[in-house]
Amino acid sequence: MKKSDNRMDANSHLILHRTARKDIKAGIPIISRGEGAYVFDEEGNRYLDLDAGVTRPVHVGYGRRDLAQAAYDQMCRLAYYTPCQFTTRPPMDLAAKLAAITPAPINRFLFECDGSEAVESAMKIAKHYHHYQGDKGRFKIISRRGAYHGVNGIGVRALGTVMPMRQIMEPLAPGGIFVDSPYCYRCPVNLTYPDCDIACARNVEQVIEFENPEQISALIGEPIQQGFGALAPPREYWPIIREICDRYGILLIIDEVICGFGRTGKMFAIEHFQIAPDLMTMAKGITSGYVPLGAVGCTDKVMAPIDILMHLHTYGNHPVACAAALKNLDIIIGEELVENSRKMGEYFLEGLKTLESIAIVGEARGTGLWTALDFTTAKKTRALFPLDRLNKIIAEAKRKGFIIKTMGHALEFAPPLIIRKEQIDATIDMLAEIISAEAKDMGC
Ligand SMILES: Cc1ncc(COP(=O)(O)O)c(C=O)c1O
After folding, report:
1. Which residue's CA is minimally distant from atom 10 of ligand 1?
2. Which of 25, 62, 192, 387 is most buried, by the most CB atoms less than 10 A from its CB?
3. pLDDT exceeding 70 applies to what percent of the chain?
4. Which pLDDT tens digit goes with each residue over 106-118?
5. For residue 115, which atom of ligand 1 is closest to its CA?
6. What CATH fold (topology level) applies to the domain 66-334?
7. Do 181 and 161 contact (CB within 8 A), yes or no?
8. Is the CB of 119 under 6 A from ligand 1?
């Protein structure tokens, strides 16, 4: 069988995630090396990676030997031991570290392999909490249209954004309920902030009443949401949701899989909103993607009634992944990457705001080093922007050596937290050129 040398093509035996047949036919870059905020492919091209590995985990940047060494040392010492009846030291140390840096009263931690499993386990823990208190009818989960919480069984039912993913997998586990997302640029209830009185949050109560409060276990949401492109809700949103959950005995799961570990300029994004979650999910930046790891944090109150967590996962509480996470957190804290995310994020957003003058750019927004440009064909009506045009912009950026991605009708940026000013300047110049050319091509 003929094999292409430096690109993957349709002859490869590998199955790619979410990649169209036509793109595979055209040839897929084989990324072979990374250094700082850059990655290199087997054809020798260098890319500035503005989405930290595209799925955005690589907070500390590529090529950190100290992080690799921590994983290697643990592998040599003890590569594996079961997460039930015994423990190893690294997950205990990581749990203690997370207890110190997560918002109070989150205090107990369980480790899984990725964000999807963390979400799954958080929902299971919520179910256990209610079950052990005799509240056995609570099986429903509230999520938001526009949300993404991973690819696994219970989590998939809280998947509101990547519609073909959800629809191909139907029928889903019963009990998924959807409410609106706080998407102010294209308000789902056609109101304007602040006159809206945060209707998208207040309306959750009607849904709870309709669905029967005694059947609802938890509400899950990202503090700042990826679905429409780095979407922060109004500051009143989470306090309203928290109050409604408390009133109905519903647990609040805050999904920090993307936002956690400095992405938004604070260690955790929920710190922007001054509320305390009952459970938190984490992954991605917890190891900067060097090894797979997800985590669930919960309060003492949530764990207190649970006699045995009926859960066993071979790779749960994995010592090597936890050792890598400990080193990764040392780097994030020691090198002040959360502060760099805040500072460079502000600088990046200032640059993106200058692009709002281009006819097809609707809104520049962002928090820390998680920013987005929302596109429209008509600024007045905020009409949706054709996705093939956005994909053209991405392809052109790639040709120029920049990796960017779409989210909804936006371009999304989540670079490694080590990104520097001159790299941001180069990005803004590149975007100004490509987006202006696209606007001209569209006759806007
Ligand atoms: C908010 C959120 N939750 C959960 C997940 C699932 O994480 P993973 O892809 O590591 O399974 C993702 C993935 O992007 C996510 O963004």
Report:
1. 115
2. 62
3. 96
4. 999 999 999 999 9
5. 7
6. Aspartate Aminotransferase; domain 2 (3.40.640)
7. no
8. yes
